Amino acid sequence: DAGITQSPRHKVTETGTPVTLRCHQTENHRYMYWYRQDPGHGLRLIHYSYGVKDTDKGEVSDGYSVSRSKTEDFLLTLESATSSQTSVYFCAISDRPPGLAGGSGGELFFGEGSRLTVL
Amino acid sequence: GDSVTQMEGPVTLSEEAFLTINCTYTATGYPSLFWYVQYPGEGLQLLLKATKADDKGSNKGFEATYRKETTSFHLEKGSVQVSDSAVYFCALIATDKLIFGTGTRLQVFP
């Protein structure tokens, strides 16, 4: 199994508080992603990183920020949590760019998820 | 934009039954197609993939064939087991992002 650790695994917080989720990998993979999983929506990309200090927005980035100061760590921050951000958050990693010919760029390895509840 | 449509779940089957989970896609160009599986309490893991028309991906008894003419990538298994109970996600890459369908829950009973 790919060495991906998400923390915390479960968190309950109140509206308006800041929250940071951490993704730590031991695979030295360059590409890292944060997704959220919600019923009826599947997985949606929040932010992604193609290297240290190289990040970009996904399809549902509003209300979220990320940072990647080291290859192994990718942090997702909710500056002021809202109830609509109650979700399960997954980190994923890859050693190949997503558009790599032959489809091997689509082989992502996922963490076990972080369940966030915003009251 | 690019998208993936999966059949609604849950799909409920008895052990040893035949499984089909439908997946169709919309994409510009020639996407690569994937099936990911999520077992209870875990993250997703790649089940199989196909990168061009008429390719068949297979793994653990599951198969899916890339059908360009019908823009489909249906997942099949001839005889399901209780241990196959999970959520199955169809996905594609057309340019630079992996796009997932909404997932289909499979429940297999003894």
Please explain how this structure is put together:
The complex is a heterodimer of chains A (119) and B (110). With 119 residues, chain A is mainly β. In chain A, 0% of the residues lie in helices and 55% in strands. Chain A has strands spanning 4-7, 10-13, 19-25, 31-38, 42-51, 54-57, 64-70, 73-78, 87-94, 109-110, 114-118. In chain A, strands 2, 4, 5, 6, 9, 10 and 11 form a seven-stranded mixed beta sheet that branches. A four-stranded antiparallel beta sheet of chain A has the order 1-3-8-7, with no helix packed on it. In chain A, a hairpin with a 2-residue loop joins strand 5 (42-51) and strand 6 (54-57). With 110 residues, chain B is mainly beta. In chain B, strand 5 and strand 6 (44-50) form a beta hairpin. Chain B is globular. At the A-B interface, strand 5 and strand 10 of A face strand 5, strand 6 and strand 10 of B.
* Sequence of secondary-structure elements of chain B: EEEEEEEEEEEE
What would you call the quaternary organization? heterodimer
Instruction: Give the strand tally of chain A.
Output: 11
Average pLDDT of chain A: 92
Question: What is the approximate shape of chain B?
Answer: globular
Largest sheet composition of chain B: 6 strands, mixed
Q: Rg of chain B, please?
A: 13 Å
The number of helical runs of chain B is 0
Number of helices of chain A: 0
- Regions of chain A with pLDDT < 50 over 5+ consecutive residues? none
Determine the most extensive contact between two protein chains.
Answer: A-B, 24 and 24 residues
Q: What's the order of the H and E elements of chain A?
A: EEEEEEEEEEE
Which regions of chain B contain 5 or more consecutive residues with pLDDT less than 50? none
Ends distance of chain B: 41 Å
Rg value of chain A: 14 Å
Biggest sheet architecture of chain A: 7 strands, mixed
What general form of chain A does the structure show? Answer: globular
How are the SSEs ordered, and which strands pair?
The complex is a heterodimer of chains A (119) and B (110).
Chain A (H helix, E strand, L loop, with lengths): L3 E4 L2 E4 L5 E7 L5 E8 L3 E10 L2 E4 L6 E7 L2 E6 L8 E8 L14 E2 L3 E5 L1
Parallel strand pairs in A: 2-11
Antiparallel strand pairs in A: 1-3, 3-8, 4-5, 4-9, 5-6, 7-8, 9-10, 9-11
Chain B lengths: L2 E4 L4 E4 L4 E3 L1 E4 L5 E7 L5 E7 L5 E4 L2 E4 L9 E3 L8 E8 L4 E3 L3 E6 L1
Parallel strand pairs in B: 2-12
Antiparallel strand pairs in B: 1-4, 3-9, 5-6, 5-10, 7-8, 8-9, 10-11, 10-12
